[in-house]
Amino acid sequence: MRALVIDDERLARKELINLLNQLETVEVVGEAVNVDDAKEKIDQLQPDVIFLDIQMPEKTGFDLLEELDNLPHVIFTTAYDEYALKAFQVNALDYLLKPIEPKRLEDAVLKLQGKMEAIAKREEQEGLGSQKKLTLEDQVFVKDGDRCWFVRLSNVRLFESDGNYIKVYFDNFKPMIHKSLNALDERLDEKSFFRASRKHIINLGWVEAIEPWFNGGLVVTLKGGDRIEVSRRQAARFKEMMSL
Amino acid sequence: MNRSTLYWLLQVLGWGSFAFVNVFFASLSEGISPLQAWAFVALAAFYLLSTHAFRLLIKSYGWFRLGIFRLIAQVLVAVGVMAVSNVLAQVLINLAFGTLNPGFDFRALVISVNLFVSFLYYGFWVLLYFVFYFLDNYNTTLRYEAKISEIRLNHLKSQLNPHFIFNALNSVRALVDEDPVKAKSAITRISNMLRFSLMLDKKQVIDLADELDTVKDYLALESIRFEERLQVDYQIEQAAYGYKIPPMMLQTIVENAIKHGISNLVKGGLIEIKCREGLQEELYIQVKNSGQYAPLPAIKRKEEEGQGIDNTQQRLALLYGDKASFRIFNSGTQFVITEIKIPKQRLTLD
């Protein structure tokens, strides 16, 4: 796999690259010294995985993830960061503690490789057409104040637009991301997600009940109790999709 | 209430009630003329003035720093002298108010009773004064110790911060191949710092030179990490080495300069440490770093933030009262300056 190392400290990058060079499966394609540099290099080099330091000057590793549209796989590297580690209690994501133990690094890389192979296999089965779209198995990075999540899209039941932001509903959380609902709609797989109205995108896997509503519209009840109105125009499409 | 207001309040109340009680009982037993009443007030005023003069003497000659036996001896002599002067003053007051009765007042028995009574009054005053002083001092020392334990705990928890230690170790790992000599010296410096912070014992102050050694180790280690992004400059006057400062105080300021200043700047910056002696036997320590100081509003602050500043201010206040000071301010748009002023004399006893 092709890896990009992102850290503001030269010696830290050197140390990690040394370690990575000892692994046959990893090819280090570049290094970046801050968030802006990293964005450029990711666009240019399209790495499979980034090794990302959290504490960097001006913008943190989390800021980078927020700014990226297409996330490569991420492995965090951090010296000691109660705050950062707490942020990931919610989901099992890989991070490496500096100084990095070679064995831990190898394990993390192996695990990632397994994951990448599984994804590649699935894509092969499903054909290349769906490659660009975000499917239920994809994860998105969400940050809200001090907390961060990598959320699997299958767990997201609802996206709701709120001004320039989108509220992402999953579990008991609804953090906001800075994106437009239209842009998101284009990237989501239409087999799994449905644009119910100007304000809402729902996850079809979460639909529990459907009732007719005024003016030929519909109201969809999601598991967990959220009730979302489907506009008249979309209701026709919805019926068409949901019928045989 | 500050201590000087409290002192005056107690003085006036105490001697005021002395005059009142005397006038009251004299009027009960044999009736009293207004003139006699004023004579008592004048006597109370003399007591107040003489004890106040005594307090000035105690303070200006630093009696609190004497050994206990020396102190008792000197206090006894002083109380005796005051008692004698008080008896003389009584005669003069009686003379002035025309209440002198030579046949009665000059009898040996009356004079010795007067001497004895005023000796008791002075003795009582001195006792109260010293007891109050020592209790107050003890209280301050206790508060200082509570504070220092808290600081030590916080320090162990976060300030000799794991973030720094692990980053330093990570750099050293890379250095082992690149520059073994530098790697060895870095390991020594890390050991020095660990040892210093573990041995941060109950000492309230340490030599500036010792604190500076730790700061130098620390900055040398951060220089390995930040490389060309960190520039360090020391300007230490020779006279500054004659001072003692609270342990870890400069270190904490410098760590904050790195954490909030240098490490947030892509291009890095400068840390400049200046120590110089002021005109009135005080030490000025100034830390200048690249960056800008923008305190967060109290509500948005997280627990640790701002704690360094509060801790430093409280420690200075406990050790030196209002003789020490702390300030942090922006110098232009490029730099932050943190400055502490430390006097040579401490407030509390060891």
List keywords for this structure.
heterodimer, A: 244 residues, alpha/beta, Rossmann fold, OB fold (Dihydrolipoamide Acetyltransferase, E2P), five-stranded parallel sheet, five-stranded antiparallel sheet, 7 helices, 15 strands, 32% helix, B: 350 residues, alpha+beta, Heat Shock Protein 90, two-stranded antiparallel ribbon, 10 helices, 7 strands
Structural write-up:
The complex is a heterodimer of chains A (244) and B (350). By secondary structure, chain A is an alpha/beta fold. Chain A folds into two domains: 2-128, 3-Layer(aba) Sandwich (Rossmann fold); 155-242, OB fold (Dihydrolipoamide Acetyltransferase, E2P). Chain A has seven helices and 15 strands. In chain A, the strands form four sheets. Chain A has a five-stranded parallel β-sheet, sandwiched between helices. In chain A, helix 4 (82-87) links the parallel strand 4 and strand 5 (95-97). The radius of gyration of chain A is 20 Å and the shape is elongated. The termini of chain A are far apart. Chain B is α+β, with helices and mostly antiparallel strands. Chain B has helices at residues 3-30, 34-60, 68-97, 102-105, 108-159, 162-178, 180-198, 208-226, 249-261, 307-320; strands at residues 206-207, 230-236, 244-245, 269-277, 282-290, 325-331, 335-343. In chain B, the strands form two sheets. Chain B has a five-stranded mixed β-sheet with strand order 2-4-5-7-6, covered by helices on one side. Chain B has a two-stranded antiparallel sheet with strand order 1-3. In chain B, a hairpin with a 4-residue loop joins strand 4 and strand 5 (282-290). The two termini of chain B are 25 Å apart. The interface between A and B is medium-sized, with 19 and 23 residues.
